[in-house]
Amino acid sequence: MSGISHKQAIQLIDRRMDGLLDEGQRLAVEEHLRSCDPCRDYAKNLEGLSTHLQNEFHRRWDPQSGPSRNVTEQVLAKTKNIPMIRRISSGRKLLAGALGLILLAVAINFVVSRLQSIAPATNAIETVETVNNAPRTEERLLAFASDHNGNLDIYTMGADGSRLVNITNNPARDSNPTWSPNGKRIAFESDRAGVTQIYWMSADGSDIVQLTHNQASHFLPMNIHGESNPWSPDGSKLLFLEEVPESKSSMLNFLDINSGDITELATGQVQFNNISWSPDGKHIGYVLNDSPTPEATFVTGIYIVDPTGENLIAIRDLIPQPDVLDSPAYYWSKDGSSLIFTDYRHLNEGSDQWIAYEYVLDSQQLIERATSDQRMEDWWEGTSFIGGSMSTLTWLRSDGTFSTLKPLEACGSTGDGPYGFMMRRSPNGSQVINIFCPNAEMWFYYANSDGTIIKPLMSSPIPSFTIDNSATSMTWSSDDRFIAVTLASPKKSSLYILNVKEPTAQPREIVVSNGELYEIPSWQP
Length: 525
Fold this sequence. Notes:
Layout: H1 6-17, H2 23-33, H3 37-46, H4 69-80, H5 84-89, H6 91-118, H7 121-133, E1 141-146, E2 153-158, E3 165-166, E4 174-179, E5 185-190, E6 197-202, E7 209-210, E8 218-219, E9 237-243, E10 250-256, E11 262-268, E12 276-277, E13 284-289, E14 300-305, E15 313-314, E16 331-332, E17 338-348, E18 351-360, E19 365-372, E20 376-380, E21 383-389, E22 392-397, E23 402-405, E24 420-425, E25 431-436, E26 441-447, E27 454-456, E28 462-463, E29 473-476, E30 482-488, E31 493-499, E32 509-513, E33 522-523
Antiparallel strand pairs: 1-2, 1-33, 2-3, 4-5, 5-6, 6-7, 8-9, 9-10, 10-11, 12-13, 13-14, 14-15, 16-17, 17-18, 18-19, 20-21, 21-22, 22-23, 24-25, 25-26, 26-27, 26-28, 29-30, 30-31, 31-32
C-alpha cells in the first residue's frame, strides 16, 4: 500500500480529473492505485462521459389574429349570469360596464395579436410554451439519484424537501438525471439494457425511451455545479459521450432528437465535465487532455466547435506565450457571443500574473479584460473575483471600487485540518461561496454578480464529513433562488438545499447514500 490513505487517494483522483495534481501527488496516486482495487475502479468510472437530449413541440395559444372570441364570450357570459332584477334596476350601468369590459378585452387582444405578429412564429411558440408551462418557483422540482433504499434510482422533490418521489424504481442502476430546457422530460443513464445507455422520460417517470443503442457504454456529461448541461437551449439536440472500446478515449457526440442523427464532435480524453452549449446554441465548448503523454500527465485544452462539428477553435493556440491554461474552467457570456477564461504567466522568480480573457466569436478577437498578481477565479462583466488568499476574497470592479469577504473570520476555531473556499457562479452571474474551516465547519455566502451585495446564507454552520471538508458540488436553480449542495464521503453522501431569498439557520439534510455516491442533482428549469 502506498503512503497515502484511501480517503486521500479518492480526493486526489477527483483533483486529477481537473488537472490539479503536482508531480508528487500524481506519483502517489498511481502507486496507491496499483494496490487498491476499489480506488482503481473508482478512477476508471470517472473517465467515462455521455449525454442525451430531447425536443418538445409547442402549441400556440389563440393562433388567429385579431380579438379573441374566447375572451369576448366570457365577458358576455358573465353579464348573462346577473339576476334580471339587477339588470332592470341598473340597466344603464350594466350596459356601460359590459361594453367597457368588451372594449377592454378587445384592446388587450389587439395588443397581444400585434406582439404575436411582430415576433417570428417559432419564437412566439417557444415563448408561450415556456412561460405558460414553466413551473412556478415554489413548484420547481429537483431531480437526483440516490441508493438510500439499496438500489440506485432517480428521485424528484420540491425545493422545500416535500413531494419526494422515486420516479424510476427499477432494479437497474439509474443515475445522472438532467432536465430538458422546458422542464417536461429528464435525460438519464441506466444499465437496464446490460450496458450503460442514455434514456429519457417524462417528469413523473413515465414514457421511458432508450436513446442510444450500440454496445459501447454511453454517458451524459457530469453536470458538476450545473456547468455541463448536455441539452441545447432549444431542446433539439443532446450531447453525450461514448466509450471507445479498449481505450481510455471517448467520443463526444450529439443526438438530433428530430432525426435521430448522431454527429461526432471530438475524440480523445474528453473531460467528463466542462462540456456545454453556448446560451445562443451556436457553439459547444469542451475540454480535452492535450498532454503528449496523456497516461501520465494532464494538460488543459479548451475547445469550441459549432454544432456541425466544424470550425474548431483551440483556445491554447490563441493565448500569447508564455501563458498557461492551468484551469479547465470557462464561462459563456450571457448572450453566448463570447467565451471567458483565465490563465497565468510566470514573470520571474516568485512572481506570477493571472489574466482574464474574453474570446469574441464573431470577430475572433481575444481581449485581455483584467490582470492580478493573485489567483483570479473568474471575471464577469467588468468584475474580477480574486481568491488568491484565504485571508481576503476580493471583488474588484472596473471602476476601481471593490468589496471583500474575510472567510476565516466565519470559522469558530482554528487548528490543523483542510480549509479554504469553493465558488460557483450561476448563469445569471450570482455567486455561492463555500467556506470550509479547519474544524470541519462549513459556511455558505451569497454574492451578487459584481460583489456589491454579500450575505451569509445561514446563521449556523453545516458540520462537514467529507475528505477535505468542502462541498462536492453546488448547483444553482435557473432563477438564482435555490442552491443544491452535495457532500460525499465513504461513510455517507447527503444533499442540502440553500434558499437564497429566505436563508435558514441551517438547511435540512437529505441522506442520499450510506456510502460514497458522486451524483449531481438537476433543477427543473
